[in-house]
Protein 1
Amino acid sequence: MTVRDNLAAVRQRIEAACARVGRNPADVRIVAVTKYIDAERALHVLDAGIADLGENRAGQLLEKYERIGDRAVWHFIGTLQSRKVKDIIDKVDYIHSLDRLSLAKEIEKRAVRPVKCFVQVNVSGEATKHGLSPDETVPFIDQLRSFSHLEVVGLMTMAPHTDDEAVLRACFRQLRVLKERVQALRWPHAPCTELSMGMSNDYEIAIEEGATFVRIGSSLVGSL
């Protein structure tokens, strides 16, 4: 199937998920995860009508950026090493994996314009996942109030890899409640209006629980 065919199927499922909970599908933004495809295939993704591309590694992002440039809205969605910030900071529009003060300081130091960041929260508590605990999240965001080049637009999480819908739903719901808590504080540096959660195997549940950004890979863009 082509990217256009895949996109049509994904959008149909997004519309159905939104209909079940009374949401507007226009409020859900698709980030195409392009880590398993080359720049040529990524261009097909843009041609199909998706503007947002997500990369997990700095090197792969830079390779594709060299070919695609500002045609895409770039999302860094993987674990970001502080030493790699200088390489990508002037190219990315969103960072989905802010999870420590040292990384925030490096972003602040290197950025020439405000960078939209999601604070990564390890809701499930799995040792294999990065992110702050829910209890650490609000105090961490409070520490960022003096960082003029960093805007906390929302929270991100990765749910457990399971078919248990109740577990997935509880994970996404907990992040939404936490997001609403931060949003209610009305901090200028942290509007926290967005939720980056849901991938190919669980994005419909994530949408039902409030996701505004879903990160979809091979089921949408294919692989090499």
Protein 2
Amino acid sequence: MTLPVHNTGLPGVQVIDLRVFHDERGYFLESFQAQRYEALLGLKSSFVQDNYSHSKRHVLRGLHFQSRHPQGKLLRVAQGEIYDVTVDLRTASPSFGQWQGLALSHAKPQQLWIPPGFAHGFVVLSDEASVEYKCTDYYHPEDEACLSWNDPDLAIDWPVNSPVLSAKDRQGLTLKALQEAGRL
């Protein structure tokens, strides 16, 4: 079974339409199958960690990344709706410092593949949202950094003006500050 894959505005970041089987009991979908994703995306690396977050309206998580242990992420919204943002932090990339945002919802079952080397975050648009994602590397708290969600040079067009942020996310650094600190 081939799944439709759509390129996005950033090289390597792709949206995968999932196949859903509906009947009178509800529905079923296959959220991952190794051979299929290797054929679709060239994903040869194995996932080592699954994460799940549940957040309330206007919570913004991100923009997180790891420098020495970059994580690729295969993300799916299990419940609710989010506005997802990825920022290219690959310094050798022609799209370095560029961002893209897109709405993802459980009502339209899709996955987002974010290759290693990107900052990632999202804001919740519905009352609540649950997000699941697989990672290609482990979480390394000593290596994690946060790109400022409102970096004026990036000018990300978030659909929420006053998001709910964690203390860590309020401390995010601009892209310039991260470069000056040698974090990229």
Protein 3
Amino acid sequence: MRTAVVWDALRAELAALAEATGRDRLDIVDAGGGTGGFAVPLAELGHTVTVVDPSPDSLAALERRAKEKGVGVRALQGDAADLGELLDRDSADLVLCHSVLEYVEDPIGALTAVAGLLRGGGAVSVLTANPVASAIHRALAGHFDEARAVLADPRGSWGDRDPTPRRYTSRTLSELLAATGFVAVEIHGVRVFADLVPSRLVDGEPGAADALVALEQAASTHPVLRDVATQLHALGHRS
């Protein structure tokens, strides 16, 4: 439910890449892929997947998950900035960069490294935290000063104790992609309502989960609702 909008976009992109390349088995890199929440399902679809992540514990969990599903996923320890050293240039059709740009010291450097991995016509899938949603969530928790700080800070942080160093609006995310040589397609809002609706309203009502997914899909491109989503998702194509 929380990732349905992302998977909708990924499936469409995978189909387009397969048609463009003439290959059903695509080469995919998941930068910061952690325990394989996206990597393992992509491998189950028949793609060749490499996960690069700095955490050895996460990579160990990834390998266990892949083994349980009967698929192979290559696991490499490293940061997003190390992609150019760990992998060959022009070796990937798709790179996932989910919940990474909020934490790296040099977002432009990280996306530039991603661009170096991609073959011509390749794509990057970027998922980032949204400061507007953070302000809403801090306000709903009663932290009004922190909510105001998020809106005032260029990095979208609410203070020194904020575990997320930076967040991106649809504008700043588009600007970052453009600055690193990507042409962005439409940006989608992810988890517009899912983080606000009490779980009892979803778990206790037959069909509620499916209805919420349908609502999320409808809201993901709404010109107003998209920009209050917890996360923003964009596909950038190498120019």
